[in-house]
Write a structure and sequence with these properties.
The complex is a heterodimer. Chain A is an alpha+beta fold. Chain A is 64% helix and 12% strand. Chain A has eleven helices and seven strands. Chain A starts with a helix and ends with a strand. In chain B, 35% of the residues are buried. The chains are: A alpha+beta, B alpha/beta. Chains A and B meet through helix 6 and helix 8 of A and helix 1 of B.
Chain lengths: 366, 234
């Protein structure tokens, strides 16, 4: 699924061997040094024997790793896993303990001359059985610790992968949500515009040409809006101008437009197709519903690093036509929330009797 | 044939006018840009055919039809209205998609011409068909196919085949426009289509019970029963 997974796998396998070598190496080395300095055992023999035991220990731990993988111990609950670790520690520890006792690596069997004063107590105070049990416990505890470290490491790695996947998933979801909320050009507008063009070809060919260019611009912008999330207010305003030109060819004197956007406001980044959606709504629920049309006003102002946009249009008095808020406005608001959190707001004001005002506030990005 | 164009967009009206220039037998007697204006013009000019846009300011093309007393032949024109197209699919109303394909227009006009020639002239003021809109569905209901009209509050429920569409008018107002040879007021709430009566039984207190084909049994009130007997010469 994820192409980086094999690489990740090799990397974690490498880490495993480094940790294995370091752990067993350090353990064996410390025992050899301990045997030579504290117990004053002869260097060569004890070093060789301890090294063999270290190697055997490592090999057994590696086999254990395969065993727990095959039996999927990672899927177990913590109490069950702990119980199994203890049992496994003893199962591996018993033969190794006995083996150690039999071999003469055990320093306690043959203390050096410096340990003679403890010697009688050490060697005579303990029976062979107790010595064997101590050896078994020593190995058992060693493997329990090894398994505990192993499962903690595996657990940590798993946790990180899950977290990584979760955040990737959240990001993908976020993007999909944004894409879905982004409005596309209304097909009703498209076909009406084409009809206008058809009419203009006979009435006024040069206006028909300009209409085709504007329609192409609007379409291109709408299609490419699938890639970009943010555009400058100026870019969006350009396309809104093209769109409004087309609509005023359709509505003729029913649609009048007024714009007031200062240069500083024009450079602020806004979500693509957002202003377009709001203007489209103003036409659809306002101008188009009124037999005599009206004035559509777009104004913007940049204040304290906040872009304030206002779109005002006359609306029919019957509230049934604008009952509640449409999908367009709700989607626009959801998009703003996904992109800016609570810093951006969008409000529809219907308090004035025959006017609808949409107010948009977007923080200026640094 | 007298036709009217009803569309809120001037370029769309001009375009349709231009397309109709190829059909000299279609005479455009008027244009309207909204429902209000159109309703008055249709009543006074009595066109035979309407080219009707659906989305218009102050009410849709459907709203216009439900307001009209006499509904002429209608060809809907729409740019892209999934809602409306769905409505058409349940009935044989003709519609044209904008921009209008001239060949498709010719086809629709041929159909209208055929229907117009076929129509037997009926006495004035008698309704032949009625436009009904019920939720998403629209019908031109031929009244002779309606078994029963029942008053339900301010509405009339039509029993027409399997459908039971509602009409936003008062029963008394509609009664005046119905063919008296076909429809009979059975009681305060119901008007029945005489063609659908299967049999009539005598009831108590001089009432009658009329059994309708594929429909319920309707009680004819005492007062109306007398009229019924005279009418049917029982």
């Amino acid at each position: 699924m994820n192409p980086s997974l094999p690489a990740q796998h090799t990397k974690s396998l490498q880490l495993y061997w480094i940790l294995q070598a370091a752990g067993w190496g350090f353990y064996t080395l410390s025992r050899i040094i301990g045997a030579a300095t504290i117990l004053r055992l002869p260097w060569g023999k004890s070093a060789l024997e301890l090294a063999i035991f270290g190697g055997v220990g490592l090999a057994i731990s590696h086999w254990l790793r395969g065993f727990v993988w095959r039996h999927q111990w990672t899927a177990l609950s913590i109490p069950k896993l702990a119980a199994r670790i203890v049992v496994a520690g003893f199962i591996v520890g018993i033969p190794l303990g006995i083996l150690t006792q039999i071999s003469d690596v055990s320093a306690l069997q043959d203390p050096g001359p410096e340990l003679q004063e403890y010697g009688p107590a050490l060697s005579t105070g303990m029976t062979v059985t107790i010595q064997t049990l101590l050896q078994i416990a020593n190995w058992a505890v060693l493997y329990m610790i090894w398994l505990a470290i192993y499962f903690v490491a595996v657990g940590l790695r798993e946790h990180r992968t899950v977290r990584l996947k979760q955040s990737e998933l959240a990001r993908a979801l976020h993007l999909a949500e944004l894409r879905l909320l982004k409005s596309q050009l209304n097909p009703h507008f498209l076909f009406n515009a084409l009809n206008t063009v058809r009419s203009l070809i006979a009435d006024d060919p040069s206006r028909a040409q300009s209409a085709v260019t504007r329609l192409a611009n609007t379409l291109r912008y709408s299609l490419s809006s699938r890639q970009d999330e943010l555009v400058t207010f100026a870019q969006e305003l350009d396309i809104v101008t093209d769109y409004l030109e087309l609509e005023s060819m359709r509505f003729e004197d029913r649609l009048r437009i007024e714009r007031d956007v200062p240069a500083d406001a024009a450079s602020v980044s806004i979500p693509v197709m957002l202003l377009q959606t709001l203007v489209e709504n103003a036409i659809k629920h306002g101008i188009a519903e009124l037999p005599s049309g009206g004035l559509l006003r777009i104004s913007a102002v940049l204040e304290n690093e906040m872009l304030n946009v206002e779109i005002e249009n006359p609306r029919p008095p019957a509230p049934s036509l604008v009952s509640g808020e449409g999908v367009g406005l709700r989607n626009a608001r959801d998009r703003l929330r996904l992109l800016f959190g609570t810093r951006a707001t969008l409000d529809l004001d219907l308090s004035k009797p025959a006017v609808a005002t949409v107010r948009l506030r977007i923080p200026q990005q640094r | 044939m007298k036709a009217m164009i009803i569309d809120d967009e001037p370029p769309a009206r001009r375009e349709l006018r231009r397309l109709l220039a190829d059909f000299p037998w279609v005479e455009i007697i008027g244009e309207a840009g909204n429902v209000e204006q159109a309703a008055g013009m249709v009543e006074s000019l009595t066109p035979d055919l309407l080219f009707l846009d659906i989305q218009m300011p102050g009410g849709s093309g459907f709203d216009l039809l439900t307001r009209l007393e006499h509904v002429p032949a209608v060809i809907f024109t729409t740019a892209h209205d999934e809602h409306a197209i769905r409505a058409f699919e349940v009935d044989a109303l003709d519609y044209l998609l904008k921009p209008i394909d001239p060949a498709r227009l010719a086809e629709a006009l041929t159909r209208v011409k055929g229907a117009h020639a076929e129509r037997t002239p009926s006495p004035d003021d008698v309704l032949e068909q009625i436009f009904v809109r019920d939720g998403d569905r629209c019908w031109f209901v031929p009244l002779r196919e309606v078994r029963l009209l029942s008053s339900e509050g301010n509405y009339i429920r039509l029993s027409w085949g399997e459908a039971q569409p509602m009409l936003g008018r008062a029963l008394a107002a509609l009664e005046r426009r119905l063919d008296p040879n076909r429809f009979f007021r059975a009681n305060r709430r119901q008007i029945i289509n005489l063609d659908f009566i299967e049999n009539v039984e005598l009831g108590v207190n001089g009432r009658l019970h009329a059994q309708l084909r594929n429909g319920p049994e309707i009680e004819i009130s005492r007062r109306q029963a007398r009229l019924f007997k005279i009418k049917m010469s029982i």
